[in-house]
Amino acid sequence: MSHLKIGKENTLAVNILNNRAKKRKKIIAYIRKSWILYLFVLPAIVYLIIFNYIPMYGVQIAFKDYRASLGILGSPWVGLKHIITFFDSYQFVQLLINTLALSFYGLIAGFPVPIILALLLHYTKNQRFKKLTQMVTYAPHFISTVVFCGMIFILLGNEGVYNQIIEILGFDKIKFMSKPEYFRHIYVWTDVFKGMGWSSIIYIAALSGVDPQIHEAAIIDGASKIQRIIHVDFPSILPTIIILLILNAGRIMSVGFEKAFLLQNNLNLEHSEIISTYVYKVGIQSGQFSYSTAIGLFNNIINFLLLILVNKISKKITNIGVW
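User: That's the sequence. What structure does it adopt?
Assistant: Structure tokens below.
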């Protein structure tokens, strides 16, 4: 009996190995057949490896007392010391509130606007007006953050265009860039203006894929444009909306550093100091590399957990998810 069992086990092992060999041959044959497609993908893979995976080696600095003279490997381990120091710092709560406030405000204000713009453009019959609107709304996306922030200061600065106009009209100047309570509104709504056209492209593409016969049937049944949007267009683009919402939820803690830093000054620091600007100041300017890496790692872990959580909730409610 024992010989029979050993024989069966050997047969199973041989079958498993043969199946694996067949699968490998199929994969190799497919790669040889579609090698040009893999060649196109290769630059993106190399880019990801160089700029996303290789730098992960330096994450261990967050758990070490890094000294340049000793190097990463030679620096002593300190465990969670830097993360605990960040949690215990008097700035932690304010930094977290500022970061989350900007993120959620930006998500609530900015997420629906590209969808509305895409729907409006989709139902615009005048093609010239449609193309002009697309060009005007797409253009701000291509303006660099530095130049765009310069434009904000020209318009809303203490001596900016807006203040000069209201001063001519006999009203007092409004110090938009100096008062903390204005910072979040300026940051979010200028961001919405800059990105709404570019973000609407994916929704326009999704709307163009809706079967025209469904619209024709709805029109025959007497459906208005609003009813067609609610019952035909919106359900068609819902998977796209949910996937983009999940991806945006995974970036909640990653508020843009450049814009926040450029619009920041000593007077609006109460609301403009966020985790990314704080990391820059303590890491680059103060040379606390281990401390800043620990804060950055904490930021990314929160983003990762939020991405998983929102994806799970979406899968349960709508059966739509990123994975």
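Residues 38 and 45 are 10 Å apart (CA to CA).
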